[in-house]
């Protein structure tokens, strides 16, 4: 962007370029069920969740899956939902057997999310 302010808002340190990003929701069967409006590249994951209408589409006892960067467990608990994210490495540098099992289960489901994101990018789906 020509505007320095907009350029700084759209710049992503992670991607090292100007970007926009969106939240994507899919059902357990892989159907795209939610696409948020676009956010500037420097918007935090938590801010995107809080400023989208994602929570208005949830039901009590829903379970949401996200990457490790989405630290929104408290927000979800306050509305009766749970968050499934991969476990963080502990001080010993090893996962427990239960954590390994959980991480494998989450990874096996995350592939469906990655495929949905690919479909949205490929077919230019928008809200």
UniProtKB/TrEMBL annotation:
<dbReference type="GO" id="GO:0046872">
    <property type="term" value="F:metal ion binding"/>
</dbReference>
<dbReference type="InterPro" id="IPR027806">
    <property type="entry name" value="HARBI1_dom"/>
</dbReference>
<feature type="domain" description="DDE Tnp4">
    <location>
        <begin position="1"/>
        <end position="124"/>
    </location>
</feature>
<keyword id="KW-0479">Metal-binding</keyword>
<protein>
    <recommendedName>
        <fullName>DDE Tnp4 domain-containing protein</fullName>
    </recommendedName>
</protein>
<dbReference type="Pfam" id="PF13359">
    <property type="entry name" value="DDE_Tnp_4"/>
</dbReference>
């Amino acid at each position: 962007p020509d505007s320095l302010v907009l350029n700084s808002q759209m710049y992503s340190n992670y991607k090292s370029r100007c970007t926009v990003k969106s939240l994507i929701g899919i059902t357990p069967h892989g159907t795209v069920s939610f696409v948020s409006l676009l956010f500037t590249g420097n918007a935090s994951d938590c801010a995107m969740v809080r400023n989208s209408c994602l929570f208005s589409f949830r039901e009590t006892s829903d379970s949401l899956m996200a990457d490790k960067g989405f630290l929104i467990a408290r927000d979800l608990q306050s509305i009766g939902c749970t968050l499934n994210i991969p476990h963080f490495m502990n001080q010993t540098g090893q996962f427990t057997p239960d954590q390994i099992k959980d991480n494998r289960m989450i990874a096996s489901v995350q592939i469906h999310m990655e495929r949905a994101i690919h479909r949205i990018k490929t077919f230019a789906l928008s809200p």
